[in-house]
Amino acid sequence: MSSDIETIAEHAEATISKGSKSFALASLLFRPNMRRHAQMLYSWCRYCDDVIDGQNLGFDAAPHDPAAHIPRAKDLDYLHRNTLAAIEGRDVAALPFAALREVVAATDMPAVHPLALLRGFEMDVDQRAYDDLEALLEYCYHVAGVVGVMMAIIMGVDPEDDNTLNRASDLGIAFQLTNICRDVIDDAHIERIYLPTDLLWREGLVPTPAVVRDPANRERVWRVAQTLLDEADKYYRSAGPGVRRLPIRAGFAVAAARGVYRDIGRVVRARGRAAWDVRARTSRRRKLALAGLGCLQGAGSKSMFFLAPPERPKLWTRPAT
Question: Which cofactor does it need (predicted)?
Answer without folding.
Answer: ATP
